[in-house]
Design brief:
5-stranded mixed beta sheet; Nucleotidyltransferase, domain 5; 3 domains; about 325 residues; single chain; alpha/beta; 11 helices; flat; Actin, Chain A, domain 4
Amino acid sequence: MFKAKYAIEMGGRYTCIYVKGEGLALKEPTLIAAEPTPEGYKVIAMGNSAKKLVGKTKENVEIFTPVPSADHSNFEYSTILLKYFLKKVEYRPHEDRAIFIIPCGLSVHEKENILKVCEASDIGQVELVPSVLCSCIGAGRAVDTSKVNMVVDIGGTSTEVAVINMSNILKGATLGVGGRSIDASIVNYLAYSQNLIIGLPTAEILKNEVASLYDNDTLNMEVTGVDATTKTPKTVVIFSDDLKEAIEPFFSEVVRAIDTTINTLPPEIVADIINNKILVVGGCAKMQGLEHYLNKHLNYPVEICEDADNATILGAGKLLSDQQLCQSVLKNL
């Protein structure tokens, strides 16, 4: 019987590690800062330390996520970062077992890449578990019954739409849009509409504090950037309405993916989804007006998870403690 002590979620924006008996032990940005040397790039900061350097370093310092997509193809830096995080939670190399959370629908090759990263990081034994199953469990829903759940996980680099029952994923789709895409869109939109150049950290703050899918929302924030023409400092008050045009296309794409998925399902499954409501999790589930927007553009009821940010890793943590549920999930993978 597989018994793990650690659950690891290494996403494009954050890495979370849950330790059995302790809870959520680590949540840090999935970031590396590296500078070129004659021998190659040298890592100078990781995680929280790397995020503090964004926009504040020499031009030749690169700050990046080694997990821009789900397959962990940047093997070297994924391994360096994962080892760094595991050491911080006192993981015992080659001994401790782990659950590693992955997007649904990965190919065999993509899963092999992740397993190679885990092996190189000295994880004793690992099982790959789809994030949508963990999200459902973390939100307090049963995944090992005949009751059908639909989960929409809007994460940092991608969005997953999945239909679940009996610990199985009946239907799943992954979109290459997430929080980072929205940040970049805000940067580009303000450069075009306001002639204002800002960095991605400022765009992320605007997304979290001001961006809204409500019509005529009055949220606003004073932002200082650089005038695109004069290259001098420029301060502008940004309103929610200024950002809606930049963010709405992403959520429109999510609506299309939900509709497309549901339209392929039998009526009995659709009835379950309506009764249970579509569960929305992930960092971008906190977007102002999202529940209103989805209910307006879908013919199905929606529920935003109360702890949308952490539902996935908390669900994986429950698997560590519940052997019966863990075995039910693992046998169907």
